[in-house]
Amino acid sequence: AYFVDYTLKKKTEAFTDKIFHSLFCSSLELESTFNALEKEFLEITDIVCINKHNSCKKEWYTFLQNLPEILKKLNKDAEFMADNDPAANSIEEIFLSYPGFIAIAIYRISHEFYKIKIPLVPRLMSEYAHFLSGVDINPGATIGSPFFIDHATGIVIGETTVIKDYVKIYQGVTLGALQVSKDMQHKKRHPTIESNVTIYSNTTILGGDTIIGSNSTIGGNVWITDSVPKNSLVYHQPVIKTKPIKYK
């Protein structure tokens, strides 16, 4: 039989909320907030860490050292969204209400914990972001900055995906594996998206060897399993038929 500590899930979700708000909320007192976050982090890692005799304080301080760079990237992400979304009225609106920004922010935090090899927690954070935003970004993905997700719902970004800078993705996009096999666990299974690429809604791009070249635009409802050269326009041309309705 298998037994798990379900308090880990709730503790991680509460920790994720608090750390997200601490990055942007002007009313918080930072020293006391981060002291509380450290306490919560150590409680969480005490559950998941393999070596129970060592505290994860070192990992927490590593994360804190990287936090200014995370915040710098997130500010660039928000500005990129404001510059490219005609419906965006302010940066504050993006911070408070854009599900795509929430997904990116939690990804960037969880990715840092993924890099320092904290077990379970990064995945629990990404699944919480999935619940909040409808966006499923594996914490192992490598995503540049700035990055723009619009409308958010239904986006899937796999573990070994590489996304460069100035990329825009719309709802329903899948960056996935061409085949699913356990023996590919430590291999690159997901595509690479070069800089300045736009991928419109409901497009599927699959395969670890698939590269979308820089400055390309991928139209909606496209299925791609081969690389695309830079400066390309790829689109699906549906056949639409109409006929008059005869009324009796």
* Morphology: globular
- DSSP E strands, number: 14
Helix and strand sequence:
HHHHHHEEEEEEEEEEEEEE
Instruction: Give start-end ranges of low-pLDDT stretches.
Output: none
Q: How much of the polypeptide forms β-strand, as a percent range?
A: 5-15%
How are strands sequenced across the largest beta sheet? 1-4-7-10-13
Secondary structure tally, helices: 6
Largest sheet: 5 strands, parallel
Which class do the helix and strand fractions yield? alpha/beta
Give the N-to-C terminal Cα separation: 67 Å
Determine the mean pLDDT. 93
What features would you describe in this structure?
The model has no long low-confidence stretch (mean pLDDT about 95). With about 250 residues, the protein is α/β, with parallel strands linked by helices. It contains six helices and 14 strands. The strands form three sheets. A five-stranded parallel sheet has the order 1-4-7-10-13. Strands 3-6-9-12-14 form a five-stranded parallel sheet. Helix content is about 40%, strand content about 15%.
How would the blueprint of this fold be written?
Blueprint (H helix, E strand, L loop, with lengths): L6 H18 L5 H19 L8 H28 L6 H7 L1 H17 L5 H13 L1 E3 L4 E2 L3 E4 L4 E3 L4 E2 L3 E4 L3 E3 L15 E2 L4 E2 L4 E3 L4 E2 L4 E2 L4 E2 L8 E2 L14
Parallel strand pairs: 1-4, 2-5, 3-6, 4-7, 5-8, 6-9, 7-10, 8-11, 9-12, 10-13, 12-14
Helix pairs in contact: 1-2, 1-6, 3-5, 5-6
